[in-house]
Amino acid sequence: MRKKILFLSSTRGSNFKAVLDYIQAKQLEIEVLGLITDIPDAGCLGIAGEYGVPSRVIPFREYKENKALYHDKLFSALDTLSPDLIVTAGYMRILRSDIISRFKNRIINIHPSLLPSFQGLHAIPQAMQYGVRFTGCTTHFVEEGVDTGPIILQSIVEILPNSTESDLTESIHKEEHKILPLSVEYFCADRLEVSGRIVRIKESKP
Ligand code: GRF
Predict the structure, then answer these.
(1) Is the CB of residue 177 below 6 angstroms from any atom belonging to ligand 1?
(2) DSSP code per residue over 151-195
(3) Closest Cα to atom 9 of ligand 1
(4) Is the CB of 149 under 6 A from ligand 1?
(5) pLDDT tens profile 17-74
(6) Using one digit for the tens of pLDDT, what is the confidence trace for 64-76?
(7) Active site residues
């Protein structure tokens, strides 16, 4: 059955775009319900416009005094749209637990490190400062812990001796643009089976 997906993003949206391009290129049976952002001038809104994806802004900064209301609005928007899958593609907030439980194992996040190393907001500079030789990116299901949920796919990027943070960010993004669309495709084809922390990727049906 055709799956309905929804994106949450706070950023420029290159991962959002990569998934939209992949769906178009492979003509996947996926309906993109929309994009919700917490940032009124986020780049992802321009991409939504370009691709004709409905978008909505729930501006977090207007709810600073009443964060619960922000989360209530987000919950209600998600509950109404009722997607099969939520993709957090550069969504820079922590989802409230009622959203995570309402969409258990149906929220996929992309993170710019090889989890469980370098969780949180500054994964790329942290990997460089730590001196690891390899880093990369990870897609995972979202659970209550930050960047701790069951891992779907990972891709490795080497940190060369003369790599700058911007080189590394670019190399990681290239890999993100491969593993996020693939993770969405697997989910939408019912190929992901989650058992505790372990995600099994089932063979595709002929
Ligand atoms: C990506 O690096 C992703 O891993 C992180 O936020 C960034 C979003 O980038 N969660 P973009 O907006 O998709 O270009």
Answers:
(1) no
(2) EEEEEEEE--TT--HHHHHHHHHHHHHHHHHHHHHHHHTT-EEEE
(3) 90
(4) no
(5) 999 999 999 999 999 999 999 999 999 999 999 999 999 999 999 999 999 999 999 9
(6) 999 999 999 999 9
(7) 111
